[in-house]
Structure formats: structure tokens, C-alpha cells
Write a structure and sequence with these properties.
The chain is of the alpha/beta class. The protein is built from 10 helices and 8 strands. It has a single domain, classed as Arginase, Chain A (3-Layer(aba) Sandwich), CATH 3.40.800.20. It binds zinc ion. The site of zinc ion (ZN) has 7 residues, from loops.
Length: about 350
């Protein structure tokens, strides 16, 4: 069984909120502790991304704006997203850790335990019309995926299971056919950033490779199991990615806060089993959101499955009305996807 490698550096803790904020350094203490509960975990110091690495997915002007905000000591990028003197170093290390995790995929189970998170950051910061960039500075996973593409990789799959839509990632790769991006998230009608509808399928050559699996508020494990079985697994089997990257957010865990989803250990374990079910061996995970119970309970359930364990978590059931709505959403999505995929 491949060993678990946590890409982690104390530099991630130097991104500090100026006031009490859910996205704060203590998240990584919880996450590391949870990973270590699984047994032997190798902690690997990541390198930092260069500006050249960032420019594959961000505009030079945006990178310069972040540098200036930090240099001038401004406390905010926007109403949700703060900055501190250590923000630039942390954000470069976070993107670097995602790249290192992608490079290590296949030889270990690399988990980039990074902050600030990244999936809401688009080319110029705010993505797809969102009001803010949702705690994110650089799009760590997108930087890693773009690095893989530039080094000759032909098919990269991104599975983003953070409860919020990965609008930054989707915007960056919207017309890129070499990136299949499947995003499971709470209904954008009830949650930030208000994007990620099933009709947003990508454009140009990338049409059909952007897949938004909408989960009604109240969705528990049963809804996740259906979405994985009916959409995520068939698409990945058909796409045959060379590398699978997870945007791993744990804020869908019941009681984690910030969202209205009710996943438990079972859903996260099932997400971690996907590479084995599909037969992909080069896999890496990059941390996105997750604020309390999701990190202490969802993260280890996910990573233990990535590392090959078969735990028997019971699947929690959603309320009947939620299941009915989820079935409607899945049927609508599959109808749209049949133009491009066998689902
Ligand atoms: Zn989130």
C-alpha cells in the first residue's frame, strides 16, 4: 500500500486573519492531527511556485495586485478574503505544494495540506461574476494541473468535492478539453458563489468537459453515492485521465458550518475510493475548505480510502424530499451530458 505524504510547511500558518475568521491557521493543526491518526504519515516540505508557474493560470496584473496588497500591508483583497504580511509566501508555497503533490502522484498518496485555499480564484481573482474570491489567493490546483499539461500530460481529471462550486478552476479551464472538471457542490441558488449550474458545460473545444453536479441542501451520503456511481465514475472511466487531482474540501460534512450539506464519513470514503474503482494510479489531493468536523472526520475517511483501506461506514440517508429533488437534478444533468458522454 503506498504511503501517505502530507505536503505541509509552517509558512501556511503565516497567512493570518485580521479578525476571527473560519479560514484560519488552526485548520491545518486539525487536519495534520487527523491525518496522523491514520498512522505513518510522511510530512514533506513543499517548494514554492514561481511567478512563471502562476502565469499559466493567472493574469500578470492579478499576481501584481496581490503582491502590492501584501507589500502595502492592506488587510483585505475583498470582503471575504483577507491578507497579512505572510500571505504572499503562504500562497506561493500552497501553489508549490499542489505542484509537488501532482509530481508525486503514483509513487505515494500525496495530500497537499495547504492554505490559503484556491478553487475560487480565477484568472483575475474573482471568477464567473462572483462577488468575492472566497478566501482564495492563487488557484493551487489549477497551477498544478497547468504544470502537468505543459509537461505533456494529455488528460487531467479534476474532481472538486468542496461544498462550494470551484468557479475559479472552472473559469480557468472552461475551454480546455484536456481537463475534465467534475464539481460536486451545493445548489448555487442557496450558496456562494452562485455558479456551477448543469448547463455550464464548457466552451469551444472544451464543451462537455465541465460538469456541475448540483446537490440540494440537506443532501447526505445517499445522494453522494448516487452521484458518484451515475456520473463521476462513468465519466472518468470514459475519459481515462493520466492524472486525477482532487480539490478536497470538507465543508459538506454535517455540522462543519458554512453550508447546508449533510455528508458523513461514508461519502468522503466513497470519494476516496474513486481512483481504485476507475483504475487511475496517479492521484493527488489538494485541500480546499473544511472548517471543523469535516477536517477531523471527513479528511481521514477520504485519505484512508485513497491509501487503500476499505472501511464500512454506514451511509446516512437524506430526507425523502431531498432525495426526490436530487434524483431530478441528476436526471437533468445526465440528459445534458448524453450529448458528450455515455451516462
Ligand atoms: Zn467550500
Amino acid at each position: 500500500m503506498p504511503g501517505i505524504a502530507a505536503l505541509y510547511t509552517p509558512r501556511f500558518l503565516e497567512h493570518k486573519p485580521p479578525y476571527p475568521h473560519p479560514e484560519n491557521p488552526s485548520r491545518l493543526r486539525i487536519a495534520l492531527e487527523a491525518l496522523r491518526s491514520l498512522g505513518e504519515v510522511e510530512v514533506v516540505e513543499p517548494g514554492s511556485a514561481t511567478v512563471e508557474d502562476l502565469l499559466r493560470v493567472h493574469d500578470a496584473e492579478y499576481v501584481e495586485t496581490i503582491r502590492r496588497i501584501v507589500e502595502e500591508g492592506l488587510p483585505f483583497v475583498d470582503n471575504d478574503t483577507y491578507a497579512s504580511p505572510g500571505t504572499l509566501g503562504a500562497a506561493l508555497a500552497a501553489a508549490g505544494a499542489a505542484m509537488d503533490a501532482a509530481r508525486m502522484a503514483g509513487s505515494s498518496v500525496p495530500v497537499a495540506l495547504v492554505r490559503p485555499p484556491g478553487h475560487h480564484a480565477g484568472r483575475r481573482g474573482r471568477a464567473m461574476g462572483a462577488a468575492t474570491q472566497g478566501f482564495c489567493i492563487f488557484n493551487n490546483l489549477a497551477v498544478a494541473a497547468a504544470m502537468l499539461l505543459s509537461s505533456g500530460c494529455r488528460r487531467v481529471a479534476v474532481v472538486d468535492f468542496d461544498a462550494h462550486h470551484g468557479n475559479g478552476t472552472q473559469e480557468i479551464f472552461y475551454s480546455e478539453p484536456r481537463v475534465l472538471h467534475i464539481d460536486l457542490h451545493e445548489d448555487p441558488a442557496s450558496l456562494y458563489p452562485g455558479t456551477g449550474f448543469p448547463t455550464q458545460l464548457g466552451s469551444g473545444e472544451g464543451e462537455g468537459t465541465k460538469v456541475n453536479v448540483v446537490l440540494p441542501p440537506g443532501s447526505a451520503d445517499d445522494v453522494y453515492l448516487a452521484a458518484i456511481e451515475e456520473v463521476v465514475v462513468p465519466l472518468l472511466e470514459e475519459f481515462k485521465p493520466e492524472v486525477l487531482l482532487f480539490s478536497a474540501g470538507f465543508d459538506a460534512f454535517e455540522g462543519d458550518g458554512l453550508t447546508h450539506l449533510k455528508a458523513s464519513e461514508r461519502a468522503f470514503h466513497e470519494l476516496g475510493r474513486i481512483p481504485r474503482v476507475v483504475g487511475v494510479s496517479r492521484v493527488a489531493a489538494v485541500l480546499e475548505g473544511g472548517y471543523s468536523a469535516g477536517l477531523s472526520r471527513g479528511l481521514p475517511a477520504f485519505v484512508s480510502a485513497l491509501a487503500g483501506s476499505e472501511a464500512d461506514w454506514p451511509a446516512k440517508a437524506s430526507r425523502e424530499a431531498v432525495v426526490r429533488l436530487a434524483r431530478e437534478y441528476l436526471a437533468e444533468l445526465k440528459y445534458l451530458l448524453r450529448r458528450y458522454w455515455r451516462v
